[in-house]
Design goal:
This protein has 686 residues and is α+β, with helices and mostly antiparallel strands. It is 43% helix and 17% strand. Strands 10-9-8-11-12 form a 5-stranded antiparallel beta sheet.
Length: 686
Amino acid sequence: PEFKAELQSPNPLVQETLKYAEQLEGNVRGTGVHACGVIICRDKISDWVPVSTAVDKLDGRVLVTQYEGRVIEETGLIKMDFLGLKTLTIIMNAVRNIKLTQGKDVDMDAIPIDDPATYKLYCEGRTVGTFQFESAGMQKYLRELQPSSFEDLIAMNALYRPGPMDYIPDFIDRKHGKKPIEYDIPEMEKYLKDTYGITVYQEQVMLLSRLLANFTRGESDTLRKAMGKKLIDKMNALEKVFYEGGQKNGHKKEVLQKIWEDWKKFASYAFNKSHATCYSWVAYQTGYLKAHYPAEYMAAVLTHNRTDSTKLTNFMDECKAMGITVMGPDINESVRDFGVARGGKAVRFGLSAISGVGDSVVDAIVKTRGDKPFADIYDFVERVPARSINRRVFEALALAGAFDSLGTNKREDLVDDGGGRPGESVPELLLRYGDLHQKAKISAAASLFDFADEELNTAARPMIPSAPAWSDVKRLDKERELVGMFLSAHPLDPYFIDLTYGTGLTLAQREDLTPKEGMEVAFGGIVTSCEERTTRKGSKMVIVKLEDFTASSEFVMFQEQARQFQHLCQPGDPVLVRGRYAAGWDGSVRFNLTGVTPLDEVKGKLVDHITIQVSADSGLREFKDLIGEHTEGRDGYRVGLHLQVYDPKINRSLLLRSSSMIKLDRDFLQSLTEAEIPFKVEPKRG
């Protein structure tokens, strides 16, 4: 009615808008090219459908049909989708890593589909970095489902999407016997048994329509297409056929109506099992590799996400959780991509992950190194072809820490501007020396006299002066500039306990937070940028960007707040931020800053106590051995200790508060995690 009234509106703008809307209605807004659709025809395609050219990023100009994909098959052509997955490359590279580190040839097509270690990984939800199953929601459902067969994985793959997700709790309850598995008609068990009585796939609907209502294969395929394309009109046309066929087979109409209504709902999210099966098989392969060859697999994952610093950080955190150390680039160990070090206990950064270091440079370094590591920085410039390395590449390698293992020279020594002749930096000095050395060697080889390599190596090596040491923050900033993240350390390491457990809110949690009016929060991190702007009313506004171990986030300071706190929010400053969410002028809930405190002032004061859960029979002895070194002395981060002692014999627990304080650090928490001892760190109130 409101729109009908607008049609009679005297407002000329409304009339003009409706006029043009009517002219635009039904016209093509724009054209696009299907990401992986390929049209197949028995003759020249232009004899059947109109064609045109389009621009493709990879292939330049390509020939495309002018008809839409959804109608192209009605012209007599076949449309097939050929998907490209980077996961297949990750699997290939993981297999290559296994061959390099362990000498094994893993045939991914021959791995067992009932591997216990792989299903244990899925049951525990340890799927970060795997295909299709890595989201937090999926991990939660996997832990609840406890998948025990490949069929379970296929079903979860198909169900975990908007719409069918509503059926997941019911699916889990039926698997574990918490709810009965029921069928509207007993014969339906034949095709619904594997999914515990729940219709999950298009193929099940096709088979059931033939079983219950004598649909032909063509009719059942038409039903599949109608469901897959959400063509409700076509489904309605088949409804009468379904009722007639079902009643002929002796089924009650009201039962058939219920089944059909369920299928109509199913049409909005119908999924084909063949697709879910293929994707689940690829996913299973990634799970198998992660379970059996964790370092080799994570090295492949890191390689294929090296240009995305956020993903790279998340996967590095996953490596740490798996007990795999992620080590920075090293001129004597690194290859082009991420590799495996320390007998499979560590992953080493690839040299090509360093900004400004191209693949051709890396190939030259690795080829020169061969089986003979570089002895020191002089050996490096003497051996690597001078044409392969310039000042920019040399400085990038130095600042990223690639030369750290070569001796006593600090990173700042190797990039100092005043090391050589007037106007010549240390990198230029060393590269000039390396070039002269290589020319001398070539000259000596062509000479009548035979110079020993030792004579050339010790002659004219320039002295590298010691430059003033940089602060940890400056060194780490340079490191992150080159590799996209902090590697050798993190400027927030001294505040790890405070930020992770003392504030009650990490920045990743803040980004996912659904704020409510009146909610008070505290969070912290290191300031990465502080940008001044002017509001529409002409007043000052400052946007501050913070980063912690989990993510980055922003908050805004307006004029009075900026006057009080801006001096505390300069890039590189570690700070604790407090605020309250309040209703904005537009009805939204917005963050209102109430205070900023340097983290140094609150370090060690944000956590109250740790509660550790132990079993009365065996857990206490294990805990006593573990806690020994952390109760002695008064140094470090000291907090209260609570024990939640559980006695399984009487199914009771008792909370004990210790009079002793305990030293809380990352090593202790890691030890508790590895020993599978549950704990909870409680922040101080207020």
